């Protein structure tokens, strides 16, 4: 069995629960309160600043030039494509770029990025990919699910761009590239190494769910 199938099987229930999360459903139905979306967009912007560094570290750890180049592309796409989506939303809401960048991460946001950066800095390339893969893969699945379940969701004046960006073939092809790279790198690896990768994938899938909850509930620092 391909390793990515094993990973998907492991987190199936968490991802299904994520698909039912009221924030996610609100994006699809178009009735998510705007304040929740603004909170998400600001938290996600600072998340993406740290997240993009994972791709830079992927380039450093890559063993092939072609792999280095795709990590560089992922870094570029995150900084100039995905984050531009957020900057566009911020402009609509009258939030300046400086205000966006100065957003203080909520505890779960901070814990999530610190976990991934720690793995990326101290672990192998396979560990780095396993830790960041739920971000790309789950967003692609969520947005495709929403586009199928709510056929007019992509046309929503506010949330349509979010759904179109993450369900696009361009975004999907980068997720597939990462999945295939991990499948290739894990061929023939011993079980004790695969178990570590599976644990990273499980942990960041849990963080993904908690991130939706965090922005829905507004879980800021308690003191
Ligand atoms: C929290 C989170 N996870 C994943 C993604 C998709 N790159 C994102 N923008 N934000």
Automatic annotation (TrEMBL):
GO BP terms, alphabetized: thiamine biosynthetic process
Recorded catalytic activity of this chain's protein: 4-amino-5-aminomethyl-2-methylpyrimidine + H2O = 4-amino-5-hydroxymethyl-2-methylpyrimidine + NH4(+); thiamine + H2O = 5-(2-hydroxyethyl)-4-methylthiazole + 4-amino-5-hydroxymethyl-2-methylpyrimidine + H(+)
Thiaminase-2/PQQC domain location: 8-217
Presence of keyword Hydrolase: yes
Single GO cellular component term: cytosol
Enzyme Commission numbers on file: 3.5.99.2
The UniProt record lists the keyword Hydrolase: yes
Keywords, alphabetical: Hydrolase, Thiamine biosynthesis
Classification via InterPro entries: Haem_Oase-like_multi-hlx, Thiaminase-2/PQQC, Thiaminase_II, Thiamine_Salvage_TenA
Pathway this chain belongs to: Cofactor biosynthesis; thiamine diphosphate biosynthesis
GO molecular function (one): thiaminase activity
Pfam families: TENA_THI-4 (PF03070)
Function: Catalyzes an amino-pyrimidine hydrolysis reaction at the C5' of the pyrimidine moiety of thiamine compounds, a reaction that is part of a thiamine salvage pathway.
Recorded family membership: Belongs to the TenA family.
Subunit structure: Homotetramer.
Protein name in the entry: Aminopyrimidine aminohydrolase
Organism the protein comes from: Neobacillus novalis
Lineage: Bacteria, Bacillati, Bacillota, Bacilli, Bacillales
């Amino acid at each position: 069995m391909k390793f990515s199938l094993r990973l998907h099987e492991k987190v199936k229930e968490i991802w299904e629960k994520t698909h039912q999360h009221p924030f996610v459903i609100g994006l699809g139905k178009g009735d998510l309160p705007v304040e929740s979306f603004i909170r998400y967009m600001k938290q996600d912007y600072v998340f993406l600043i740290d997240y993009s560094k994972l791709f830079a570290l992927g380039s450093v750890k890559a063993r092939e030039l072609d792999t280095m180049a795709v990590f560089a592309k992922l870094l570029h796409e995150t900084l100039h494509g995905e984050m531009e989506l957020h900057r566009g939303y911020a402009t609509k809401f009258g939030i300046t770029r400086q205000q966006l960048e100065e957003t203080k991460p909520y505890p779960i946001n901070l814990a999530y990025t610190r976990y991934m950066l720690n793995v990326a800095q101290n672990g192998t390339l396979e560990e780095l990919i396993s830790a960041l893969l739920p971000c790309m893969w789950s967003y692609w699945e969520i947005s495709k699910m929403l586009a199928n379940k709510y056929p007019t969701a992509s046309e929503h004046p506010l949330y349509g761009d979010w759904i179109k960006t993450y369900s696009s073939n361009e975004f999907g092809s980068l997720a597939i590239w990462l999945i295939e790279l991990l499948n290739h790198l894990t061929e023939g690896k011993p079980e004790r190494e695969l178990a570590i990768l599976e644990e990273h994938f499980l942990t960041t899938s849990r963080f993904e769910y908690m991130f939706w909850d965090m922005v829905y509930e507004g879980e800021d620092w308690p003191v």
